[in-house]
Amino acid sequence: MTTPATPSLTQRYIAATTRSLPPGAQDDVRAELEASIADAVETRTEQGEDPAEAERAVLTELGDPAALAAGYTDQPLQLIGPRHFLAWWRLLKLLLMIVPACVVGGVALGQALAGASFGDIIGEAIPLGISVILHLCFWVTFVFAVLERTGAEATSTWDVDQLPEAPTDGTSRSELVASLVFLVLSAAALFWDRFRGFVWTDGEKLAVLHPDLWPWGVAALLGLIALEAALALAVYVRGRWTAALATLNSALALLFVGWALSLLARQELVNPALVDVITRESDLAPGALRTLAIVTAFAIVAVSIWDIVDGWRKTRRDAR
Predict the structure, then answer these.
(1) Cα separation of 120 and 243, whole Å?
(2) Selection from 277, 271, 289, 278 nearest residue 210 by Cα
(3) What is the DSSP letter of 286?
């Protein structure tokens, strides 16, 4: 009985390369590889190398058979290649900046309106936010991987009209003036609310803020406004945002959130006389004021979070 001959390294390499090729291309590639490998081995042996070592060296230089086969068929070995990478990255970043925050905020608001405890709100919102992030990463990548494999185009051809506008540094004189004007108007609104009132009812003007906030509660808020003005001046003088200024901005936002939410929770933020008028004249359903308070709290938190993120975004931009 005759023992079958053991395939040589060259035969094994060619078989590994051609097995994933279309049947019509296998014979041509096999013949091409046999000829090129034989020529390379012959060149090495003529230079004095051992035939077995020469064969091993030639095959090593050719590389992974799967990679060589992909080159014959123009099949990409990357999940997303350079043709689609920028479109994938831009879309993924945009969705990650918007969708998880909206989902988490919406779920947290819904849970709060339903009367859930703080622990239940966190337990529902955070895992869902993580799940949304994972799904976004997977499905966006999956779609672009399909586009990569099918050869479809994801974006139009780039031209110079797509260049972004030159970014501003956020430290111009107009930016400073706008910030100071807003802060002065905010401080003036506090005094107008106290001495003139913003709401007319039965020929009488009512303040929006709780009267007991004067003087110390409002003084604390005026102090925060003064610090915000000092921060705007510091950014203007410095010429750019820095990590220290962004940290100060974050601290001021957190102080404002703490001030507002603590008063709101103790029902000491809004004038009770105004609440009574609204309840009496609007025929609000039971729990409507609680719903309004929760929505107000979420608005305060959302604005403060945006202020913090914007400060750090400008810091990162200016650092570049």
Answers:
(1) 34
(2) 271
(3) T
Q: 48: phi > 0 → left, psi -120 to 50 → alpha, else beta; which?
A: left
Neighbours of 139 (CB within 10 A): 11
User: Where are the domains positioned within the chain?
Assistant: 9-73, 82-155, 173-319
Phi, psi of 151 (to 5 degrees): 80, 15
Per-residue pLDDT for 47 more than 90? no
Q: What is the DSSP letter of 164?
A: P
| Helix axes 23-46 and 51-62, enclosed angle (nearest 10) | 130
**pTM of full prediction above 0.85:** no
Percent of the chain with pLDDT over 90: 15
* Size of the chain, expressed as the number of residues it contains: 320
- Which tokens belong to 176? 């400073």
**Alpha-carbon distances, residue 260 vs 119, 268, 292 (angstroms):** 21, 9, 14
Sign of CA dihedral 19, 21, 24, 28: negative
Q: Across the strands, what pairs with 200?
A: 205
Strand partners, 68: none
Burial of 48-58, coded b for 16+ CB within 10 Å and e otherwise, reads ebeeeebbeeb
Over residues 74-121, the pLDDT tens digits come to 666 777 777 788 888 889 998 998 898 888 888 887 877 777 777 888
